[in-house]
Amino acid sequence: MKAYPNVNWWPGNLRPNESVIGFAVRFCSHNNLKLSQFEQFFGFEIQNLDSITSNVVQRIAELLNEDLASVQSLFSPSFILGGLAQNEYSRGDRTLVRVRYCAECVKYGYHSFIHEVSWLSKCPFHGNNLEESHLGYGRGAKTKILFSELKLIMEARCPSWPLVPKLEISVDGNENFNSLF
Length: 181
Description:
Strand order of the largest sheet: 1-2-3
Structural class: alpha+beta
Radius of gyration: 16 Å
Largest sheet: 3 strands, antiparallel
Order of helices and strands: HHHHHEEHEHH
Number of strands: 3
């Protein structure tokens, strides 16, 4: 049996199709870390996800004792959604900073990268209208702002935060998700 890492995390805690920012918020909440400490611990910056290598993904799986497929799903929105994964509004060199979420998913401490897809108006898991928290337009890195806002949302709307109830959620065979395509 593998030894647990020296962090507050347990096998199976990572959820399929969870957003990287959602994972970071949960991990940091469990371990009383700042976003910069999270990025240093795992060896990647959230704003540079395109540079994630298979070695980094493997290392995260080993550090957390999570199965590789779950960790890969964090970094695979384009695999599931193809070219439909566009999720930013831009105005010149400025990007809209916002968090989109499903109120029902948030009750379980869950945020999916699918919630951030700009052309979706409903949660593909629950069929609810997605809510948005607009934080304005900004230049450069928006990760810290997104992290802070999602953390506030989770703390306010998930009754057991950061200990979250079990949530079985999947795009496979999901009627709401499949109706989108």
